[in-house]
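User: We ran a pulldown and think these components assemble together. Before we commit to crystallization trials, I'd like a predicted model of the whole complex to look at. Sequences follow.
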Amino acid sequence: MSPTAIPSTVESATPAVKEKSAKPDLRFKRLDITMKRHQYQPDALIEVLHVAQEAFGFLEEDVLDYVAHGLKLPLSKVYGVATFYHLFSLKPSGAHTCVVCMGTACYVKGGDKVLEKLQEELGIELGETTPDGKVSLMAARCLGACGIAPAVVFDGTVGGKLTPEEAVAKVKIWAGES
Amino acid sequence: MDLQELREIAREEKARQKPVRVHCCTSTGCRAADAMGIYGNLQAAVKEHHLEDRVEVIGVGCMGFCGRGPLVQIDPDDLLYEEVVPDQATSIIEAMNGGTAQPILGDSQHPFFARQTRVVREYSGKIDPERIEEYIAVGGYESLHKAIYEMTPAAVVEQISKSGLRGRGGGGYPTGLKWATVAKMPGDQKYIICNGDEGDPGAFMDRSILESDPHLVLEGMAIAGYAVGANHGYIYVRAEYPLAIARLQKGIQQAKKYGLLGSQIFDSPFDFKIDIRIGAGAFVCGEETALIQSIEGGRGNPVPRPPYPAEKGLYECPTLINNVETLANITAIIRNGADWYASIGTENSKGTKIFALTGKIRNNGLIEVPMGITLREIVEDMGGGVPDGEVKAVQTGGPSGGCIPKSMLDTPVDYDSLRQVGSMMGSGGMVVMDDSTSMVGIAQFYMEFCRGETCGKCVPCRTGTVQLYAMLSKILKRQATRDDLAKMEALCEMVRDTSLCGLGQTAPNPVLSTLKYFREEYEALLVEPEYLNGQAALHGVSA
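Assistant: Here's a predicted model for the assembly, 721 residues in total across the polymer chains.
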């Protein structure tokens, strides 16, 4: 079965997806290509979800459904895997992400204080996104950049040896963007 | 490809290399401090000063001294520049023509470097990890050729057994024994898995090996495949290590192009292909049965052993799972022989081990030391001690290990000694703590980690870690009594004895070891029951 043959589930998705579905949604095309490359084997599930997460930013129910159909897996299994791993998110994240490393080396060198200050400044807890949708605050178990602890990843760029104030300054630049 | 052709590539590469090689670290740590900017500026400066005939700038992997990065090292003079910023690049090149270099000139003979024995990290920071030719020029893939053409699979297994190599991922299981078990299993389809799911917070040696010398691991996997009769390998890498993944992908492509991976390697009947599997953020996937579930596309839930993966692993086939560092030792053992390897280290722990020396320590970074070196030598001589204050404890083994107090710094670092003092080797994280670190806080920190990372399959681990975390929090909030402490200790033992996999069995270790050596810190936080009753009455709650 070709996964492109099941448009019904796709079109019943959120308005954002609906608007785009007037034209073929390239993001679903990316999923098709990935699944085809893996010959629709069920063990490619995590690989496909990685691509989906990257393309969509998070895993909506219709995306999970689409993958389940494509790989001929029950939706429950796809949902189970998507919720098991930390890197898959079922909620949209902010325009910018700030990931604070909470590995041991960073913790011993004050990573917890960096996190506290960021929480205070942004007014959100760990794992939340600011109400304006600008910044998501997350924690990583360990980035393996212990030599430059404490480390924070700002939109994919690792910053090292940060003081709480420096970390806040970086985030404030985003807040100032319109 | 045959041996002649391989050596021809090596010869050509050596002829191509310029007499002066400027090594610029381009690994994750240094990249965070704009190492790529430095790399670009160095190249531009070489061009500007028309030194292209004599000098080349190479982006290399980790040199180890991450705390002083970004690093630039120049051979053959062995000059080491520390904490370089991009603007200083020009002055480094100008110094070759008699100018003065601006950046801090480090000491490449510092004990941090001089006390190391480099087996795995021999060429880390010396070669460009993105060019297979550089790896071949330093003797790369000759071990694979030697194994295929000069040794039988059984002889390879025997060499590994004789070398005394033990698993570097933490458990310390004899590698040769594991190989022999898989080799003995019947069946045509077997798998090799390289476990690169380095989840231990505070450890980054696997990332460094994969980023700095990816072919070392690929070659080790191919030799393992030949020895146990497997023709398909998987490398499971954490998604948190994008640079390692990119370099592995490039490495596999290059090796395939030269016929060093794929079908009929070195024109022999031996085929071996390697695929990469990327993790999705789950600490438990470092456990071998969970890792197999994850490669098969499922939730990373461990399954009871036996059957061990060696008998029934990936897709129900016999599977050899080794850690990155273990596999990185293989080529050296095949090249130099088991006796040479066994001459390094202690009686029961052979060879070297890479440690990630981090935390409150003057010189932090990666060190490769012979087994049996004492913690004191590592922390005080190589690490230079704690910047302001005194060492209080050294944590080894991550969330599965324990804290070793200052009084036991003379403990030799090997599998058995560390276990005896209530910690473990683990994957090699070594976090130094000073007086400002609360040991109860550290125990809570690790329990928070285990609480979040438990897969939820077995009850002792799933609920035990949650309860232990709550109890530790209660102690830290000064709301716990002596009774609570006793209950917590009992629960620690229960979780340790009844959990299904290594995660749960070792989760109480940080609590137990801090209780053993720093009990007074716990006791100082305890309160009398009367006090709690008084507090409750104050807030109008009946106790």
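Chain A is about 50% helix and 10% strand. That may be worth checking against your pulldown data before setting up trials.

User: Thanks, that helps.
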